[in-house]
Write a structure and sequence with these properties.
Blueprint lengths: L1 E8 L2 E9 L18 E8 L7 H8 L6 E9 L2 E8 L2 H15 L7
Antiparallel strand pairs: 1-2, 3-5, 4-5
């Protein structure tokens, strides 16, 4: 199956990722695909300013969730990408809530 994530702002392409998985050739439980994770997702913040260090702080804060693999990157001054993969639902949902609250500026979530 194929996957595409495209973000456009004001008619301009801001972010694009594509990939294709062939389960017969690429086992989904392989380390670099899904491993033992049943929950996967991407969070994108686009448009609002992303402060220097915000991605690193969020990435570091995600380390406290058991069974979660996370990557958070500031791709530009107004673009942040966070990926989450977890073996359990609670860790996955808590990490997404942390990202949402942090990016929305609700208190100091980190």
């Amino acid at each position: 199956f194929g996957y595409e994530l495209r973000v456009t702002r004001a008619g301009a392409l801001e972010y694009l990722e594509r990939y294709r998985l062939e389960p017969a050739q690429d086992p989904l439980d392989a380390r670099w695909i899904a491993s033992d994770c049943c929950y996967v997702g991407t969070t994108i913040a686009s448009g609002a300013m992303v402060c220097d260090g915000q991605a690193d702080a969020l990435h570091g804060a995600c380390a406290r969730f058991d069974g979660l693999s996370a990557a958070v990157d500031r791709l530009g001054p107004r673009l942040l990408l966070a990926r989450f993969a977890a073996s359990s639902g609670p860790s996955f949902h808590e990490a997404r809530a942390l990202a949402r609250d942090t990016l929305a500026g609700r208190g100091h979530a980190i």
